[in-house]
Amino acid sequence: xxxxxxxxxxxxxxxxxxxxxxxxxxxxxxxxxxxxxxxxxxxxxxxxxxxxxxxxxxxxxxxxxxxxxxxxxxxxxxxxxxxxxxxxxxxxxxxxxxxxxxxxxxxxxxxxxxxxxxxxxxxxxxxxxxxxxxxxxxxxxxxxxxxxxxxxxxxxxxxxxxxxxxxxxxxxxxxxxxxxxxxxxxxx
Length: 188
What we know:
Number of domains: 1
Oligomer: single chain
Radius of gyration: 20 Å
CATH class: Mainly Beta
Strand order of the largest sheet: 1-4-5-7-8-9-10-11
Order of helices and strands: HEEEEEEHEEEEE
Structural class: mainly beta
Distance between the termini: 39 Å
Shape: globular
CATH superfamily: Lipid/polyisoprenoid-binding, YceI-like
CATH architecture: Beta Barrel
Number of helices: 2
Strand content: over 45%
CATH topology: Lipocalin
Largest sheet: 8 strands, antiparallel, barrel
Helix content: 10-25%
């Protein structure tokens, strides 16, 4: 009898920890990855992507989880239709051939219960390279409007676009591109 109770208690503990991670779906109305790049040394040009999807799992107690984000390359928005068309072309993103940019985490970094970083694979233009995201402004709490548990954060990194096969006009148009992803995700 004692062995049965111990086995049941152990199984309950293991299954509870296996389901401790919370799953979130990215809120497409509040998640807009953006970028900054030098333009001929005169100015910093900015743009964003209007369509993003993905899943995030978090287990702050175990200091683990995952991030899986997909950005629709054709959804690039700069405020200039001609520039957007050029950026979607073979000169840059080649959106017809490479319709998405992805980030898939391999590990998350925590400071206490606060998510502060993520290492993973960034795929753009058919090339996958390791990237580290710095995460700040991390917050999980019920959304005051919807009352649903929501997490939000700002993730940043800098890449060299030439390392992803997008080298048109380098160095006149900067090789280093700063990426910022403000993200909100709603608990499933």
